[in-house]
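The record is kept unedited without comment:

——
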Amino acid sequence: MNKKLLILVFLFSVLGLNAQDAKSILDKANLAYNQAGGITASFTINTEDVKGKTVYSQDGKAYLKGNKFKIDVPDGITWFDGKTQWVYAKGGDEVNVSNPTGEELAGVSPSVLLSLYKAGFKLNYKGEKKEKAKTVYVVEMIPLGKKTEFTKMVIHIDKATNIFTSVNTFGKDGVNNQLIITKLQTGVNLLDNLFVFNKKEYPQIEVIDLR
C-alpha cells in the first residue's frame, strides 16, 4: 500500500471513529435524560448579535419531564405538554397557542435536541474540556441539506452523568444563543398539569389560537 493510500485510509478511519464517538456520547445523553424523571434546572441564556456587537443575558428556570417542559424567563413563560405550546409574554394581554415543529422546539426542549442528531446531521466529537469542576464532552452537530435557522450546534455533556451542561446555537442571521445550566436536580415529582397553560391563573389574558 503506497503512502498516499495509507494516509487516506487512516483519515477515513479517524473520521469514522470521530462520528461514532459523537453518536455514542449523544446516545448516552439521550438515555440519561429519558431516565432522569422530572427535572428542574436553573439556567442562563446569552444571546449574541454578531453584526450589532451586542450580548443580552437572562436567567431562567426550567421544569422538564420527557418531552414536556415549562420555561420561565424574565420576558415570558412557555408551556409545552408534548403536543401543544403556550407562549405568554409577561405584562402582555395574550397567550399564543401553537403546535410547534421539532426544529422550533430544538432550542428549548432537551428531548427534541437529544433526538435531532439521529438523522440529517454531521456529528463531530471535539474532545474533552474542563468546565469548572466538571469534565465535559464537546460534540458538534452540523445540519446536512436541511433548511435550519442555524449553521451548527455545539453541545457540552457532563462526562460523569451524561447530562448536557450547555448548548450553543450559531444562527444564519448572525444571532448566536448559548444556554448554560447553572443548577440541576433530577428525579423530581412534576405533575402533568404543570406543563399546561391554566386560564384560571390568567383570567384577563386572551388566548390566540395559531394552530
Observations:
- The chain is about 20% helix and 50% strand.
